[in-house]
Amino acid sequence: MKSRLYPYVIFLPKGSKYEVLRAMFSSSVPAEILRIALRHGVSERIYQKDLIESLGYSNKTIIEHLKALTDLGILTERMEKNEASGRTIWLKTYRLTDLGKWFALLLVDEENLSNEDKIAIACNAFRSYMKWIRELSERLGINRSDLQKIFEEEMK
């Protein structure tokens, strides 16, 4: 059976790559949090209270995973001040970081992305990968003209 392969690329922090992978794949909760983030929009904030209401897990479980994802740089956490009925209410919000967006994009079906999103993702992935290749080639002493030749051959 021949299936279509996708070149999933994730740039992981060097010092904590195992911790990040463990946090993402040791439980289904982080994946479900990222799916909700995708439904809200890759760059949009998600409220802690919405996650607690949406997911069928205890508050403690969700908060533990949110803390781990924040500590590992997959989510950013902010407090948002709201005025309601003459009272001040503080709400905790989260947003996907660049690393979080890469993980979230592992979970989304290509068919569910707009062409505009696909173009942005492809350009972002290409830029990030090229930057990584440039830095690696400089450390290894690879001649830039060799890389340029490969690039030109593949772009024909």
Mean pLDDT: 85
Strand content: 5-15%
Biggest sheet overview? 3 strands, antiparallel
* Inertia-based shape: elongated
Class of the largest domain in CATH?
A: Mainly Alpha
- Quote the distance from N terminus to C terminus: 30 Å
The helix/strand order is HHEHHEEHHH
**Lateral strand order in the biggest sheet:** 1-3-2
- H/I helix tally: 7
What structural category characterises the helix and strand content?
alpha+beta
Please provide the count of β strands.
3
Binned, the helix content reads 55-70%
Q: What is the CATH T-level topology of the largest domain? A: Arc Repressor Mutant, subunit A
Q: Give the low-confidence spans.
A: none
Q: How much is the radius of gyration in Å?
A: 19 Å
The H-level CATH homologous superfamily of the largest domain, spelled out, is Winged helix-like DNA-binding domain superfamily/Winged helix DNA-binding domain
Question: If you had to describe this structure to a student in words, what would you say it looks like?
Answer:
This protein is α+β, with helices and mostly antiparallel strands and 156 residues long. The chain folds into two domains: 8-108, Orthogonal Bundle (Arc Repressor Mutant, subunit A); 109-156. The chain has helices at 17-25, 29-40, 48-54, 59-71, 98-107, 115-140, 144-154, and strands at residues 46-47, 75-84, 87-96. Strands 1-3-2 form a three-stranded antiparallel beta sheet. Helix 2 packs across helix 5. 15% of the residues are buried.
